[in-house]
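[recover] target loaded
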């Protein structure tokens, strides 16, 4: 399979990426729940190849203020992994993680990004036996539109975006897990999952 852009994904391949998103998202939800003292974190429907403008809509519209926690991925699968929260939800999450003043919020979210990325990559390895190495997380406050313009920058603008919603039900907090594999890595990734 050659490099696959979002527009070129077959239904079978989109479903496979969606299932990968569900599995990684489930591990991320479990890890986040443990980090928060076993608070219930649930998983919503995964969407496997959203256009960038629809990603912005899921985040509250292009003008919405969000906090993006980005991890670059290198190895057999190059790309990006993001945990994105609206500003209000990021504030609540950082407070729940023990950050009671603005200066500690970035550190708390940085730790959450590390935990979530590790959980996702462990799930990816269990499913594919591919070892993918994460960068240190970046924590950035920006608009949803600006974030979507950055998705895949340095990876490939047309790369598919796999998005899964995580919900902390008892605090009405939600975030989006975004997996953006480089288009040239989609074929090997699917092959490692047993999909041709």
């Amino acid at each position: 399979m050659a490099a696959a852009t979002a527009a070129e994904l077959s239904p079978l391949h989109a479903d496979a990426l969606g299932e990968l998103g569900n599995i990684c998202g489930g591990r991320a939800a479990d890890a986040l729940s443990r980090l928060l003292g076993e608070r219930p974190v649930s998983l919503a429907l995964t969407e496997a190849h959203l256009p960038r403008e629809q990603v912005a809509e899921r985040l509250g519209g292009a003008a919405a203020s969000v906090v993006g926690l980005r991890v670059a991925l290198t190895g057999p699968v190059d790309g990006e992994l993001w945990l994105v929260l609206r500003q209000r939800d990021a504030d609540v999450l950082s407070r729940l993680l023990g950050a009671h003043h603005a200066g500690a919020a970035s550190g708390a979210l940085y730790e959450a990004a590390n935990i979530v990325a590790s959980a996702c990559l462990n799930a990816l390895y269990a499913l594919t036996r591919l070892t993918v190495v994460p960068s240190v997380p970046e924590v950035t406050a920006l608009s949803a539109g600006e974030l979507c313009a950055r998705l895949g920058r340095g990876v490939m603008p047309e790369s598919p975006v796999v998005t899964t919603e995580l919900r902390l039900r008892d605090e009405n907090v939600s975030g989006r897990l975004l997996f953006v594999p480089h288009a040239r890595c989609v074929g090997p990734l699917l092959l490692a999952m047993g999909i041709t």
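[recover] notes: The mean pLDDT is 86.
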